[in-house]
Predict the 3D structure of the following.
Amino acid sequence: MNDSVKADDTEADSSAAEHRLVTSRRQIKTVIRRLGKVGLFIASLFLFILAITLMKEGARDLAPLVRDSFRVSNPANSLGFGWLFAYIVMSGSPVAAAALTFFDAGVIDQLSTFTMITGSRLGASFIVLFIGFIYVLRGRNRSTSLSMGLLSLTVTGTTYLAALVVGLLLLRSGWLDGVQLQSGALLTSVTDLVFDPIAEFFLALLPRWSLFLVGFAIIIVSFNLFDKCLPQMTLKESQVGRMSRLVYRPLVMFLLGAGITLISMSVSVSLSILVPLSQRGFIRRENVIPYIMGANITTFVDTLLAAVLLNNPKAFTVVLVEMLSITIVSLLILTTVYRKYEHAMLNWVNNITNNNRNLAIFMVIILVIPILLLIIV
């Protein structure tokens, strides 16, 4: 009897020790994984600052190419240029950073910088539609997959084009010229000590104009690294599905979109998750319109950082006006005509997704418009 009890106790102790060992290993792996993500974040930030430094050095020598070959000589041209540029790289943030470095180098003026950044955001919204096409190719529901991408692109287009008018008025008025980040000079002086020697090293090996291209490639890598350092969670783990059933108020979704984009520093990330969420039935199209509006405001955080790193007060003003103008337009819609706006957007998307001819026409239009802006105006 006693031997049996002792054997049971021994087995229980062994099982408990094994459980503690497994738990300890899991905790160690979790710590290592978190440290790895911290390391990726530091690396992405380092590469981002390095990229801005290199692009700034090389931008001035690209002036003839931008003005003569690409015909970027006025705000309309720069709007089309930023729009197409974002299509090519499938991201808006690198193009927005490029606009600021062009402005800092005197390649384009302040108004053209503003419109190029606006164009970069219009082009970047195409990535959600592209993801929708991938879902269709994988055999998913055509209407659900494409409608979320089309809705994102349409909401972004309507709000940004309205904000374009507001922003141009604000820039010309000069009301925000005196609003600056006081610590910007200190930050740039610290970064100069670290990154200027690296830029000099590249200059010794490469022609100055090529530094812009090198920096542009590096900034894309930095954004990819930043995406990888974000926590990877399933829908059940993150409780997004449960939350989406609770947040039906437009203002809540507006703040949620702004918050997620602020954390991820990527509107492509925050908007792209809408496609799988809608596919699984966790979120409805009418719920995401204010979410998209909020995401389109805080997506400028990385561009604002780029302006600070350039230590150019007028560049900072451009980004500030971008953020303020889209905020004004979005809040006006949410507080005055939201239901009518929502109805119009959903009807528009339904008309496109339910008819192949309408979809084809829409795709041609969003490709042709930036080309026309670039070559005709």
Observations:
- The longest helix spans residues 2-59.
- The chain has 19 helices and no strands.
